[in-house]
Amino acid sequence: MSYDLIGLGELLWDCLPEGRVMGGAPGNVVFHARQLGLNAALATRIGDDLPGRELLRQVKSIGLPTHLIQVDAHRPTSLVTVELDQTGSAKYVFTPDCAWDGLEQSPLWLEACASARSICFGSLAQRGKRSHQTILSCLDVSRERSPAACRLFDINLRAPHIDREAIVASLRLTSALKLNEDEWPLLMRMVESSPQGFPSTTFEKASAEVVFEKFPDLQWICVTQGKAGLSLCTRGEWIKVAGQTIQVVDTVGAGDATSAGLIYGHLQQWPLEKTARFANTLGGLVSSHRGATPRLPLQQLAAQFEV
């Protein structure tokens, strides 16, 4: 079976003050893609424990396939403590050495990634060497057998889980890049031996052009800017979408919803401006609800943008 989207990486429980909610960036993106009507699946690893079995039940209840979810007999399912400030902004504390640190390369995963129309992955799951190598192998087979596929790298620079070599290696196999405005200068320092070589540490055309030049496979970059909206650019087009007036409940998973919107617009072959507006709307909508994976009528929202 060929999928519209494979989410490759972590699946976990976000432990919020009000209770646990399914999370993990690739899992969140796949969840919203499924709500948008895409044929999506998650390639991840959970523990052989009660939290893992509960995650599996949750995935099944959403209607997502589970055959790409590995079970680890030794490492636990990931539990993440989420601390929210007064504005709803989140701080995360991750379980060390959890199940998704041991992602294993398998023929099933390689075949799924080789034929998928898009893959979403991040940097957090690459903190473990085995998982890093597995993710690179999946990206490499996608690049070789489906060169037109969208390989979206949603960088998640959360200290202390920042590995320059893993990030640069991923960028070489990436066709699309998403990050936030605080992460942009950090990324520039990683990819440029002399940061003074960049025209600016802010996201603008000149600095984007430097990154495009360094990574030939890269086709577009999205930088989210919180209440100020987002910027989305290709090698020849630049779109800025203003922020929305919304009541923020929490920001958990808002960026992942934005990623789902970007992938959806790309697969629908929408113009860049429409894709940017849709992704921005999706991110804002999720931030107005609790947790990363609220159940929302996203196909109806997409239909409004089709008009």
Automatic annotation (TrEMBL):
Provide the GO MF annotations for this entry.
Answer: 5-dehydro-2-deoxygluconokinase activity; ATP binding
**Cleavable signal peptide:** none
Q: Which CDD domains match?
A: bac_FRK
In short, the EC number is 2.7.1.92
- Per its UniProt record, what InterPro entries does this chain match? Carboh/pur_kinase_PfkB_CS, PfkB_Carbo_kinase, PfkB_dom, Ribokinase-like
- Carbohydrate kinase PfkB domain boundaries: 21-296
Q: Which UniProt keywords apply?
A: ATP-binding, Kinase, Nucleotide-binding, Transferase
Which Gene3D superfamilies does the UniProt record give?
3.40.1190.20
What PANTHER family does the database record attribute to this sequence?
Answer: HEXOKINASE FAMILY MEMBER, PSEUDOURIDINE KINASE-RELATED
Q: Which family does it belong to?
A: Belongs to the carbohydrate kinase PfkB family.
| Stated name of the protein | 5-dehydro-2-deoxygluconokinase
Q: Which organism is it from?
A: Planctopirus ephydatiae
